[in-house]
Write the structure tokens for this entry.
Amino acid sequence: MPEPTTAQAAAVLRRGGLVAFPTETVYGLGADASNAMAVARLYRVKGRPAEHPVIVHLAHADAAFAWAREVPDAARILAARFWPGPLTLILKRSALAQDFVTGGQDTVGLRVPSHSVAQQLLRDFGSGVAAPSANRFGHVSPTSAAHVREDLGGDVDLVLEGGPSEVGIESTIVDVSRGAPSVLRPGHISKRQLEEALGTTVSEKKSDSPRHSGGLQRHYAPRTPALLVPTYALDREIAKGKDKVAVLAFSRPDERVDFWLRMPRDPQAYAQRLYAALRELDTAGCERILVEEPPQAPEWSAVHDRLRRACEPA
Ligand code: TXA
Ligand code: MG
């Protein structure tokens, strides 16, 4: 069977259907952001609570800003610098952003992705696409079309193929809706890059607020219990268990371990492979996953954020 086209996918969205599509961060599960029934089905399929807001995706900044009633300078600067790309802006919503996408909040999350398939889909559709990551609620985000099918199976009407996601972790979320910009979720675009673009300091919220699901503990998590272990304690953790363990580490495989994945020491390469690696470890038939803690440096902050949510501390 030929791969479905973005034009076919846009037609599915217009009928109120669900389309999974690639972005440079992770795959999204899309619905027409103006269609209450379609978005309701999206939430059902994801298993996501209705009060959790969803990001609205558009092809370009002008189309995105129509969903906001106020666009402060900071938003324009960040959009000009980082869109299309792995950045989500939180803005005061316009009438286009209805309660069923904002979870009843007065703000809306907007993103212009750069992936060519996402761009083509958004152009073909010509309006906002509401899209959370295309995984079941709480599970690891998908970075390939195969991951989407594993998670959602027949609950999605059409899956667009777009290769492995280049960034591999979800977009950086910046709240520009209330004065000084603040990072709600770290990502590939770093706090320092945001500060350089804006010429001001940017705060980083410790996102514990259950208003956004990325803020929940044990989110983005594999099903096997995963433990985050400092390098010095890895050997001890391996030695102590009588159970089968799977390890994600920087160093070479240890013979005592049943399943070992070696990760790159570059934070961006690590992020790109992280979710596929967690899925692989999860299906290795082990009782525990041990994840070696990456360095405590600012360029690792987005990876640390995801690992903290996927793992329990040692
Ligand atoms: O990279 C990404 O952002 C991917 C791709 C598909 O675009 N999407 C994604 O969506 O990660 P999701 O729903 O899995 O995570 C979006 C996060 C959630 O934590 C949500 O609560 C938060 O964005 N969010 C959305 N609208 C918000 C708002 N108005 N205020 C605060 N947080 C918001
Ligand atoms: Mg998600």
